[in-house]
Design a protein that fits this description.
The complex is a heterodimer of chains A (433) and B (178). Chain A is of the alpha+beta class and 433 residues long. Chain A folds into 2 domains: 42-149, Rieske [2Fe-2S] iron-sulphur domain (Rieske Iron-sulfur Protein); 169-428, Naphthalene 1,2-dioxygenase Alpha Subunit, Chain A, domain 1 (Alpha-Beta Complex), CATH 3.90.380. Chain A is 29% helix and 24% strand. Chain A has 13 helices and 21 strands. In chain A, a hairpin with a 2-residue loop joins strand 17 and strand 18 (333-343). In chain A, helix 7 (220-227) runs antiparallel to helix 8. Chain B has a single domain (15-50, 62-164), classed as Nuclear Transport Factor 2, Chain: A. A 6-stranded mixed sheet of chain B has the order 2-1-6-5-4-3. The longest helix of chain B is centred in the first third of the chain and has 16 residues, at 15-30. Chain B starts with 14 loop residues before the first helix and ends in a 14-residue tail after the last strand. Classes of the chains: A alpha+beta (433), B alpha+beta (178). At the A-B interface, strand 12, helix 7, helix 8, helix 11 and helix 12 of A face strand 2 and helix 3 of B.
C-alpha cells in the first residue's frame, strides 16, 4: 500500500520521527478509521450512564454511530444506530430512554433492546416475500464485540482479535485505581459532560496527553495569571489555582516523574497535582480506611497518576476522576468528550472537587486548555506546508528501558509518542498492534 | 417566588436605570476593560454559565463558567498576558442586549451571597454576542439573568448567569467573559 505522496505506509513512521502526512493526509485518516478504529477496542461509555432497561447512550466508533443499550435482563448491548428497514438513525440524543422497545421513527418497526426485530406493522404484506424476521439482516446489527472492564464499556468492530483485558494489558491498572479510589469500589458518571472541538488531527491530542515538555511553555499565560499574588508554598494556594499553576513546575520536576508505556500504544505519567493534606483529601482517606483499613488505603492512594492513554480512544485521570474520550471526525477535526465520575461511597466533597477540576481544566472556558487547542491547530496548519517533512520524536530516543512487561523512561522522555507510533504502524499494517 | 427574588422590597427601580447599567457592562466587556468590569461585582458575586438546561446548581455539576472573584481575576489577567498564544490575535466581541425585564421567578442557584437578606433586583435579558478571532467569526446567544444589589444610583452584581442556548452542544473555546 502506498500513500498519495508515494511513500509506502511503513516508511512514514520511524522509531524517532514520523512523516507529516500522518497528520494531514485524508486518505491516511480513512485508513486509520478502518485499520485502527475499525479493529481496536474503542471506548463506548460507562454502564452507569444506562442504569435502567431501555436507557441508551450514543457513541462514535470511528465514523460509526452506535448505541449502548441496557436490556431488560441487565445486559449491555452495542448496536449500530441504523434501522435495517430504510436506514434511519434510531436515536439522536447523546443519551436518553428508548422505552420497552426500540421504535424506528419512520415506519414503526420495533426491536428488542438487543437489536432483534420484534414486530413490523401490517405483517401480512411480507407474506410470500424474502422478508424473514429470523434473518439478522432484518434486525439492528450488533457491533461484533462488546466488553466491559469495571463498568467501562468498550467495543470492537472486528470479529476477532485480543479480548478486552488482553488489549488493555498493563494500562488496566489505571482503570483499577480509578475505581479502587471509591470506598465501594465502583464509580458512576455524574455532573454533566463537556464536548470540545479541536481543529487538529486526533493524534496531536493523544500525543500531548503525556507530553511533559509543553506545559511550562504552552501554559505560561495561565501559570502567570494563577501565580500572581498567590504562593503555592506549603499547599497554601487554593486548589483551583494550584491545578493551573502546577503546569509551571521546572523541567527537573517533570523529568523525575514516572513515565510508563505498554504495548498497543497505552501509557501513563506520574501525578503532577498531588493533593495536599486538605480537608477533602482527609475525608476521602477516612472513608477508604473505614472500608479497607489504613494499609490498603495507603496502597490505593500511593498510585498517583496524571493522564493515562488508552490508545486510541480515551484518557482516564484516576486521581481526579476525569475521562477524556477522543472522537476523530476528520483529518483536521477532533471532538473530545470529558466525563466526570463520582466515587461511590466517598464523601460528597470528593466529587465536588472533581467538578472543580473539570471546570478549571476541561471546560471549554478553561484558562489552561485554549493555549493547547491553539498550538494543536498551529501544528495542523504548519504541517500542511513544505517547510519540512518530519516530526521529531527524538527526546531520549534509544534510552527507553523494557522492564517487567512495560517500557519505562525519565519523565521528559518522548517514550509515549514513540510507543503510540509503534502501535500505529502495527495496526496500519493490518496487525493487532 | 424563589429564594432571593425580592423585587418587591421597597419597590422596583426605573427599568431605564437597569438598562443603563447593563449597556455599560456590555460596553466594558466589548472594549476588554476587564478591571472596570470586575469592579461591577459584589465582593462575593458569582459569574455562572450552566452546562445543561435543567442544571440545579454549580456544586454537584460541571459548568461552562463558574467563577468567583478569584477566578474572574485569573481569566482577566490571562487574557492580557503577552504569551497567551490563543489571544494572538485577541478575541473581539460586539454584543446586543435586549428584552430587558424584571424576572420575579428567577431563583438563586446555589450557596453564596444569594442567601442573605439584602434586597436584590432580578433582571433577565436576551443577548447576542458576535465574536471574531483569527479567521473565525461566530455568533453566541442566549439569556442573561442578573441578581443586582442596589448601591447608590447604581448596582453591584451578586450573580451574572449566562444561559447559552447551545450550552449542551459541542463548543469551540470560550475565552472571554460572555
Amino acid at each position: 500500500m502506498t500513500t498519495p505522496n508515494d511513500l509506502p505506509l511503513q516508511d512514514l513512521v520511524h522509531h524517532d520521527k514520523v512523516h507529516r502526512s500522518v497528520y494531514t493526509d485524508p486518505h491516511i485518516f480513512d485508513l486509520e478509521m478502518e485499520r485502527i478504529f475499525g479493529r481496536a477496542w474503542i471506548y463506548v461509555g460507562h454502564e452507569s450512564q444506562i442504569p435502567e432497561p431501555g436507557d441508551y447512550h450514543e457513541a462514535l466508533l470511528g465514523q460509526q454511530s452506535v448505541l449502548m443499550v441496557r436490556a431488560s435482563d441487565g445486559r449491555v448491548h452495542v448496536l449500530f444506530n441504523r434501522c435495517p428497514h430504510k436506514g434511519a438513525k434510531l436515536a439522536t440524543l447523546p443519551c436518553g430512554k428508548l422505552g420497552k422497545v426500540i421504535r424506528c421513527p419512520f415506519h414503526g418497526w420495533n426491536f428488542a433492546h438487543d437489536g432483534r426485530l420484534a414486530s413490523v406493522p401490517v405483517r401480512k404484506g411480507y407474506e410470500g416475500t424474502a422478508f424473514d424476521e429470523s434473518d439478522p439482516d432484518f434486525s439492528i446489527r450488533r457491533v461484533p464485540r462488546t466488553g466491559s472492564y469495571r463498568g467501562f464499556v468498550f467495543a470492537s468492530l472486528a470479529e476477532d482479535g485480543p479480548d478486552l483485558e488482553t488489549f488493555l494489558g498493563g494500562i488496566r491498572t489505571s482503570l483499577d485505581n480509578f475505581c479502587d479510589r471509591a470506598p465501594d469500589g465502583e464509580v458512576e458518571v455524574a455532573g454533566g459532560v463537556f464536548r470540545v472541538w479541536q481543529n487538529s488531527n486526533w493524534k496531536i491530542f493523544l500525543e500531548n496527553l503525556n507530553d511533559t515538555s509543553h506545559p511550562m511553555v504552552t501554559h505560561e499565560s495561565a501559570i502567570n495569571a494563577a501565580r500572581d499574588g498567590h504562593s503555592d508554598a506549603e499547599g497554601g494556594m487554593p486548589f483551583r489555582l494550584h491545578i493551573i499553576a502546577g503546569n509551571g513546575e521546572p523541567y527537573v520536576f517533570w523529568d523525575e516523574l514516572e513515565m510508563v508505556a505498554f504495548d498497543r500504544g497505552h501509557s501513563y505519567m506520574g501525578a503532577i497535582f498531588t493533593p495536599p493534606k486538605d480537608p477533602v483529601s482527609l475525608a476521602h482517606i477516612a472513608a477508604l480506611e473505614a472500608v479497607h483499613g489504613p494499609e490498603k488505603t495507603r496502597e490505593i492512594l500511593s498510585v498517583q497518576r496524571h493522564n493515562s492513554v488508552i490508545y486510541p480512544s480515551c484518557s482516564p485521570h484516576s486521581s481526579f476522576q476525569q475521562l477524556r474520550v477522543i472522537r476523530p471526525v476528520a483529518v483536521d477535526r477532533t471532538l473530545v468528550e470529558i466525563y466526570t465520575f463520582r466515587l461511590k461511597g466517598a464523601p460528597p466533597e470528593v466529587f465536588q472537587r472533581a467538578v472543580v477540576y473539570a471546570n478549571v481544566v476541561n471546560s471549554p472556558s478553561s484558562n489552561v486548555m485554549p493555549d493547547d487547542i491553539e498550538v494543536y491547530a498551529r501544528c495542523q496548519e504548519g504541517l500542511k506546508g513544505d517547510g519540512g517533512d518530519w516530526v521529531s520524536l527524538h527526546r531520549d530516543a534509544g534510552r527507553d528501558r523494557f522492564e517487567d512487561g512495560r517500557y519505562v523512561a525519565n519523565g521528559l522522555s518522548e517514550l509515549p509518542m514513540r510507543n503510540q507510533y509503534r502501535a500505529w504502524a502495527r495496526y496500519m499494517s493490518g496487525e493487532d498492534a | 417566588m424563589g429564594a432571593g427574588a425580592q423585587n418587591g422590597q421597597g419597590g422596583l427601580p426605573d427599568i431605564r436605570s437597569i438598562e443603563r447599567f447593563l449597556y455599560r457592562e456590555a460596553r466594558l466587556l466589548d472594549e476588554r476593560r476587564w478591571s472596570e468590569w470586575l469592579a461591577l461585582f459584589a465582593e462575593d458575586g458569582v459569574y455562572w454559565a450552566p452546562l445543561t438546561h435543567d442544571q440545579p446548581d454549580w456544586i454537584d455539576h460541571a459548568s461552562l463558567f463558574h467563577e468567583d472573584a478569584l477566578m474572574r481575576q485569573v481569566r482577566a489577567r490571562r487574557l492580557e498576558e503577552k504569551r497567551a498564544w490563543s489571544q494572538q490575535p485577541p478575541t473581539h466581541t460586539a454584543r446586543i442586549v435586549g428584552n430587558v425585564h424584571f424576572d420575579e421567578e428567577a431563583r438563586w442557584p446555589g450557596p453564596g451571597p444569594g442567601q442573605g437578606p439584602e434586597p436584590r433586583i432580578v433582571v433577565r435579558s436576551t443577548f447576542h454576542v458576535m465574536e471574531w478571532r483569527h479567521d473565525t467569526k461566530r455568533l453566541l446567544g442566549g439569556f442573561y439573568t442578573y441578581h443586582l444589589l442596589p448601591e447608590g444610583e447604581s448596582f453591584r452584581i451578586a450573580l451574572k448567569r449566562v444561559d447559552l442556548i447551545d450550552r449542551e452542544g459541542a463548543h469551540e473555546m470560550l475565552e472571554v467573559f460572555l
